[in-house]
Design a protein that fits this description.
Elements: H1 5-30, H2 36-71
Helix pairs in contact: 1-2
């Protein structure tokens, strides 16, 4: 069974919701303290997490595009 556009869109939305939750979690728990190192670590963690999700999304998009082109 091939994934259709609805399933792909739902996955993209789910990844964005996970990213938003993790960002809010980092802001709420890490920025309530006065430790500068912890704040910098939280910011770098958010950036790395965003980049990893972006790369994963591009890989999935490429794979699904190739599968869809092969089946048509």
């Amino acid at each position: 069974m091939m994934p259709n556009k609805v399933v792909i869109t739902m996955h993209i939305i789910a990844y964005f919701l996970i990213m938003i939750f993790n960002i809010l979690f980092a802001f709420y728990y890490n920025f309530n303290v006065n430790n500068k190192g912890l704040k910098i670590t939280a910011i770098f963690g958010i950036v790395v997490y965003f980049i990893c999700n972006l790369i994963f999304g591009l890989i999935v998009n490429t794979i699904v595009t190739k599968i869809a082109a092969a089946t048509n």
